[in-house]
Fold this sequence. Notes:
This protein is an alpha+beta fold. The chain has a single domain (3-173), classed as Glutamine Phosphoribosylpyrophosphate, subunit 1, domain 1. The chain has five helices and eleven strands, in the order ββββββαααββββααβ.
Amino acid sequence: MSVVVAVKTEKGYMLGADSQMTAGDQKNTYAHKIFKPCEDVVIGSVGMLTYAQALGFMDEVIPKTNLITGEVNTKLIYANVYPRIIDFLRMTNRLGENETPDFVSIIAYKDKAWELHGDGSVLEIGDVYAIGSGAQVALGSLESTMGQTARDRITTAIKKTCKNTIYVDSDIHILTTYKEEEI
């Protein structure tokens, strides 16, 4: 498991994730759990790594037509995006015909974001959100750091979570649905 944290800014969403992967009593700290499959979209996943990676390898998670028209909403995520993910997992032999994948993802598009579960349930999320191990710790941290930059809030939330769960590590990756200015 891992933690993925989302913070809405005036420009869109910023997502951050740790990079630890565990298998039994072994850990690896080089796993990528957030992806930017195209401009304006960032996806972060927790659960089985193979499902998170599949989202990073998909060519078209959200249909290009919808990205062009801006018609990206809860119904699209439920009725189109989720079936695309399932089809891709089956096509790549990551999921059997009668299996339900074990993952939870945050899919962010511009200034909207959704929580998507492996069973296909979808929930539009608010201005701050967290999924995975220690999500409650991350949410508490996000509430206590209001007024700070989104990047600082995410970094602090993941570091606090790292101190409270063995399934999260402090190597943090951050992506945005918007283009960030050079610092």
